[in-house]
Amino acid sequence: MAAKQISKKKHLEEEQVKLKSIDKQPIHEEYEYVTIPPDGGFGWVVAIAAMLCNLVCDGTLFAFGTMKLHLQKHFQCSDMLILMVGSVPCGVYLLVGPIVSGLANRYGCRPIIIIGSIGASACMVLSTLSPNVWAMMIIYGVFGGIFFGMVYLPSVVMVSFYFDKKRPIANGIVTAGTGIGALSFGPLADFLMGKLGWKTGMLIFAGIMLTCILFGAIMKPLQPTRVPIKKDIELETSVNSQYKKGQHTPSSAVYREKAGETNVPLLPPGDESARISNPATVPGSNNGSSEIPAVTTVGMISSPLDQSQRNRTTSISSHTSVDSNGNRVGVSNPEDASRPLYKKDALFMGSKQQLHMSHTSLNKTNPYMSSVTNIPAATTEEKKKESAVQAFANILGAMTDLSILKNKQMLLICIGNIFSMLGYYLPIMCLISFATEDMGVNQTTASFLLTIFGFCNTIGRFAGGPIAMLPHLSALRVHNALLFTAGILTVLAAYAYNFTTCALYAGLMGFAIAPHMSLMPNIICDSVGLDRFTTAFGVLFLFRGVTSIIGPPAAGFLKDYTRKYDLAFAIGGAMIVIASFFHFCIVCVPTDREVETNEKQEEIRQKNKLDV
C-alpha cells in the first residue's frame, strides 16, 4: 500500500514537471513601433532650424508693409489693390494648412519644407516679371502663399515631434523667429529696395528664402523604435491544488494584462487547434476606438490523467509603448509611427503644464494624451500602400471636418477670429504708410515701426504663458483682456499725430496682440480636448485664412475713399474689440464634457427617484 502511494506521488511529481516545462517554452513576442521624443539633443538643432524658417517666412510676409511703398510707386495702383498683393499670401498660407498637413503626413516634413522654399523663391523671382499688379497678385500672392505655407506648418510640426515635456521652451524659440523676422526684415526691405530698386530687393529676398532648403534638410524624421511586447506565462498555483484534489479547472480562464486588464477566455475543451484573437480596447483612449490584438495562444487541454483545462495568468514584463496614463502609443507599421500628424498633439504648441492646470479645474482629470490616433495595422505591402494614401486623406479630412462647430465654444472662437483677423494685419501692413503719408514721417525712420512692433510682439509671445499661470488667471482670461486692449489701442491709433505716438502704439499693440496667437492653442484645447485638437485647429486655419485676405484690402479701400488711414484703424480696432466680446462669451457656454456630465447626473437623479 505504501509502495503504491509512493508510486502515485512520484507520478504526480513527474506530471507537474511536464506542466512546468510547457510553460517554460520560448516566450511568444509581439512587436510594435513607437517614436520617442528625445526632448533635447539634436532636437534643439531642429528647433533652431524651425525658428530660422519662421524668421525667413514670416519676416518676408511681414516686411510687405515696407515693400508696399516701393511697389505702389512702380505699379501706380490703389491702396486696396497693392494691399491685396500682401494679404493674399498671408491668407493662402493659412488656407492650405490642411492640405500641407496631409502632404507632410504622407511624405514627411523635410521634403515638403524643401519644396516649399524652392517654390516660394521661384515665385518671388517670377513676380519681378509681373506686367501689372494683378499678375503679381497671382504669382506672389496665390502661388507664393501656397509655398510659404509648405515651409511654415511642417517646421512647427517637426518641433512638436521632437519635444514633449520641453515643448513650450522649444516652441518659444520657434515663435521668436516670427518676431525677429518682423523687427529685422522691414528695415532690410526698405534699405535694399530704396538703394537697389524693388526688383533687385525682391531677388535678394528670394535668395534668402532658399536658405530654408538647408534648414529643412536638417529636420530629419525620428526613427521609430521596435518595442517587444513579451508575454510571460505562469502557472497558477490553484491548478496544482485543484489537480491534487482530482478536480477540473473552470471551463474558462482569464488573461490579465497590466496594460489593460484584457479578458480573453480560453478555448472550450475538445478544440485543440483553434486560436483566439480577441480585439481589446486600449485603456485611457478618449473614444475607445484604438484597438490592439490580444494574445493569440493555443488552448492547452492536456492534463496528467484526463485532458483537463488549465488556468493561466499572463503578465506583460516589458511594454514600453504604454505611457504613464495607460495610453497606447505604438503601432504595427513603422511608417505610420514616423508620421508626425498622427500624433494627437502634433499641432499643440502651448504649455502642457498650463493645459493640465486649466483642465484639472474643470474635469479633475489630466487630458494630455500623446498617443497616436487609431491607425489600422498594416501587415502586407498592399495594406502599407493603402496606409500611405490614408496618411494624407485622414489628416485632410480631419482638419476640414466642420462638425467641430457643433461645439458652441469652438463656434464662438471661430466667429471671434473672423473679426480679429480683420484688424490683425493693420499695424503690420498699414502703419508705415500711415506714418509716412498721413504724418509726413521719413520713410527710413517709419520702417523702424515694424522693428518696434516685432520686438514687443516677441516679448508678448514669451510672456503670455507665464502670465496665464499666475493665480486667478488662465489662458482665456489673459487672452481676452489683452485682445480687448489691442482693439482699444488700434481705435486710439487713429488719433496718432507723429512718429512718437505711432511708435508707442506699435510697441503696445505688438505686446497686446501676441497672446492671440500664442495662447490660442490652449484655449482651443480647453474647449474641444486634445483628441479633436487637430480638427479644431485646421478649421480655425480656414476661418483665419479667409478674413486675413479681406482685412488689409478693406483698410486700403477706406484709405482710397477718405484719403487717410485714421478711419481704417478705427474700424479695424472696433473689429478686434467685437472679437474679444465673442471670446468673453466662451465662459458662458458649457463644454461638451460638462454637458455630458450634467446629462449623466440628471439620469442618475431620475433613476434614484424611480428607485425610491
From TrEMBL:
Spans through the membrane: 42-65, 80-100, 112-131, 137-162, 169-189, 201-222, 410-434, 446-464, 476-497, 503-524, 536-555, 567-589
Polar residues: bias regions: 275-290, 304-327
UniProt keyword terms in alphabetical order: Membrane, Transmembrane, Transmembrane helix
Domain of life of the source: Eukaryota
GO MF annotation terms: monocarboxylic acid transmembrane transporter activity
Region named Disordered: 262-338
InterPro entries registered for this protein in UniProt: MFS, MFS_trans_sf, Proton-linked_MCT
Record protein name field: Uncharacterized protein
Organism: Adineta steineri
